[in-house]
Design goal:
15 helices, peroxidase activity, alpha+beta, single chain, 10 strands, Dimeric_a/b-barrel, four-stranded antiparallel sheet, oxidoreductase, about 25% helix, peroxidase, about 425 residues
Length: about 425
């Protein structure tokens, strides 16, 4: 069984709906102050145990970058025990992640991707008022410490409709984890081994992944990826308008690109028309597989959700080895309905990944399924919604007579920055706070 009382709630607990969230980045200039801040934050961070205590409340999570652990004085032998992707940091992995051109680190928001980012504090709650109350508690942990400086903040929100900026219902897919007692959203997917998401437990390979040392530091921790993704909503709408002959066909094209109707209803269950009731039904809107649709007549093989999680589709590799806990939180105002020109306002998604394997989970999915299609049998095509298409992307919609071929897909999502982080268990947070030079 997972030691839920030692695992941060933000690792395995689904987020409330709707909710508001804030990301705050801290720089540690004085080692003692950084340790003191972690000790104080450990009293604020919520554990994954006692779900009734979390219901209807705001909670805080804490993560550290490699540079953050270094700033706290973690011994070199401990630093070397972390995964090599984490040691390099996201900006150094840009080419492997497809963060090139407009998405390259040279264009990222400062200080994202730099060695100045040490601690990431994430707070979320069912509404902004409750969130602000929890944030006040969290800020008291570092605001009075002269050696700890807040250097960046992003406020986010989830609309009551649960949609992201392109207008699709988000946050539907959540895997079940053995030993957590938390059900997944797809009843056709058996629970995954806990070691896929929390360090110190058996994983799908049958072993236990390397745990950062000493064990008190690594056990019950996990890796987290945070990415700020700017969404070109007007460009996405224009593309649909330019390639459709009616508003109904625009919605059909949008659903084929995504794999779901905007309501959240999956094409796998309602390929001909949207079903808003199904889209809103948490017991049904993720209860499907692809075995009955190998050609993609219902759900195109190259659409966004089928690339991100091929489910039972035969692909190169074992899908369960690449499963992720993925979460997204919108930021910026909604672009008014019908507007086709960019208003210059920044809007998009704060993407979060949770998993024990940065390489074979997040980086594999990003490089092999989002930015390429070979292992999925899709040639050199990229994800039509989030891939780096740069005006030359293509997408095929299988039809029984003549497939519909879309060309000239542009880049609808641009990376504005991100970080690779480690989310320690609660005991590890206290252990870090009590380090001695």
């Amino acid at each position: 069984m997972l030691e839920l009382e030692d695992i941060q709630a933000g690792v395995v607990r689904p987020r409330p709906t709707p909710y508001a969230a804030s990301y705050i980045l801290l720089r540690v200039d004085e080692r003692a102050a950084g340790r003191e801040a972690l000790g104080r934050l450990s009293e604020v961070v919520a554990s994954a145990a006692n779900p009734d205590r979390l219901a209807g409340r705001a909670w805080v999570s804490v993560a550290l970058t490699y540079w953050g652990l270094q700033s706290l004085g973690l011994p070199p032998e401990s630093l070397r025990s972390f995964s090599w992707e984490f040691q390099q940091g996201m900006s150094a992995r840009a080419s492997a992640l497809g963060d090139t051109g407009e998405s390259s680190p040279e264009h990222w928001e400062h200080p994202l991707g730099t060695s100045d980012v040490h601690i990431i504090v994430v707070a979320l709650g069912p509404n902004r008022q409750m969130l602000d109350g929890e944030l006040t508690r969290a800020r008291k942990a570092f605001e009075t410490l002269p050696g700890v400086t807040p250097i960046w903040r992003q406020d986010c929100h989830a609309l009551p409709t649960e949609t992201e900026p392109f207008g699709f219902r988000d946050g539907i897919n959540h895997p079940a984890i053995e030993g957590s007692g938390i059900p997944g959203t797809n009843p056709h997917e058996p629970p995954l081994k806990p070691g896929e998401f929390v360090l110190g437990y058996p994983d799908e390979m049958g072993g236990i992944s390397p745990v950062p040392q000493p064990e008190v530091l690594g056990r019950n921790g996990t890796y987290a990826v945070f990415r700020k993704l700017h969404q070109r909503v007007a460009a996405f709408r224009r593309y649909l308008r330019e390639n459709a002959e009616s508003s109904a066909e625009e919605e059909w094209l949008a659903a084929k690109l995504m794999g779901r109707w905007r309501s959240g209803a999956p094409l796998a269950l309602c390929p001909a028309a949207d079903d808003a009731a199904l889209g809103a039904d948490r017991d049904r809107n993720n209860a499907f597989q692809y075995a009955d649709d190998p050609t993609g007549y219902k759900t195109p093989a190259g659409c966004h959700i089928r690339r991100m999680n091929p489910r039972d589709t035969p692909v190169a590799g074992v899908v369960r080895l690449h499963r992720m806990i993925r979460r997204g939180t919108a930021y910026g105002p909604v672009l008014p309905e019908g507007v086709l020109e960019d208003d210059g306002v920044d809007r998009g998604l704060m993407f979060a990944f949770i998993g024990a394997h940065l390489g074979r989970q997040f980086e594999f999915v990003q490089s092999e399924w989002v930015n390429a299609g070979t292992s999925l049998g899709l040639g050199d095509t990229k994800d039509p919604v989030t891939g780096p298409n740069a005006g030359t992307g293509s997408f095929s919609i299988p039809r029984r007579h003549i497939p519909k071929r879309l060309r000239g897909l542009s880049q609808f999502v641009v990376t504005r920055g991100g970080e690779y982080c480690f989310m320690p268990g609660l005991r590890a947070l206290r252990w870090l706070a009590e380090l001695e030079s």
